[in-house]
Amino acid sequence: MTAWNFQGRDVLKPATLQAAAEIGVETLAPSGFPRALLAAGFLLYAVAAGAAWWLALKLIPAELSLTLLGKTLHTASVHDHLNNVFLVFLLLPTALGIEAAIVGWEQSSLRQLIFARTPSLNTDLTVFILGQGHVLDIVGRVMMLGVSMISGVWIHDAIAGATGVRLGPPPLPFVLQLPLYFAIYSFFDYWTHRTDHTKFFWPLHRYHHSAEDFGVVTSVRQHPATFTAIFIVNLPLAVLGAPADVMIYVNVLVVAIGFLVHSKIDADWGFVGRWLIQSPNHHRAHHKLDMSRPTGHFAIAPIWDRLFGTWYEDRPDPKLVIGVDTPYHHGFLVPRDMARDYYHFWIGWFGGKSDGPNAARFLEKR
Description:
By secondary structure, this protein is an all-alpha fold. It has helices spanning 35-59, 78-103, 109-115, 119-132, 135-143, 152-163, 174-196, 202-209, 228-239, 244-261, 270-276, 280-286, 303-307, 335-348, and strands spanning 64-68, 71-75. Helix 7 runs antiparallel to helix 9.
């Protein structure tokens, strides 16, 4: 970063300058599996899943009431739940298919997840499953002391009631609202990401950066207590009156980009990756272990990195070693590292050693 050096880590692992093969990371052989067949299969799947999604939203009402044992249960968020389900069952397989078609079956995340998982990818997979089961949502609400319950819609309505001013989308067609709100989202997300790399918030975001191997599902490797986006992204967009029907598709685009930039695709996407949408290689540069140079490439849309001085490389090295120098117990037992990082988050506010190889231990002997 040009002006900020947030992470302040002074000890680097020797592995920083080692090639992946030298530190025991499995390297996969080129593929002989027909890539056209992979692409066709996943394309058919994406079309079928997309059609099912559209049909479900048309046929199932947004609000439902159900009476059981004399009690009536009511929900007004049926479509929100449907969107979450289809985002996973449409976007994740599609991203896995795109990646497999480009890099080949042998090098794909799908093959590695099934047949050759590393401990780091086991963590990714566990976090994904716990997230889909809403376990992490519940844990996060407890850890965040309820701040996730703050409603931007309530603030929006309160402003309208007090001032008579009701902010809302401009009178533009959908095809123009989508890029507009994506740009607004990416601006707020850029500042969320930079905030997450500050000394006080880094211990929670570090959980994502602890991945030592990229795979499509690495995108979902997030600490449940992470909350900065609530205040820097969600609340401003709600207050501005961002339309829900547009934000659904913005969310689809953001999630899809997240899957692809954490994939094994070796590409910088040329002009698009340098100015419009972050590429996998640029995101790998953001995840680099070597902290002898500042961290950059925070934005989904690189234009914000360029405007605010955090763009560093047009063509980053696709073989950069990624990870952090704080030790992690990669694997299926994720609560231990999550609890430790949550502890580091709190002690960091009071001057405790919250990062690096010598960070304060939590329920461990030295």
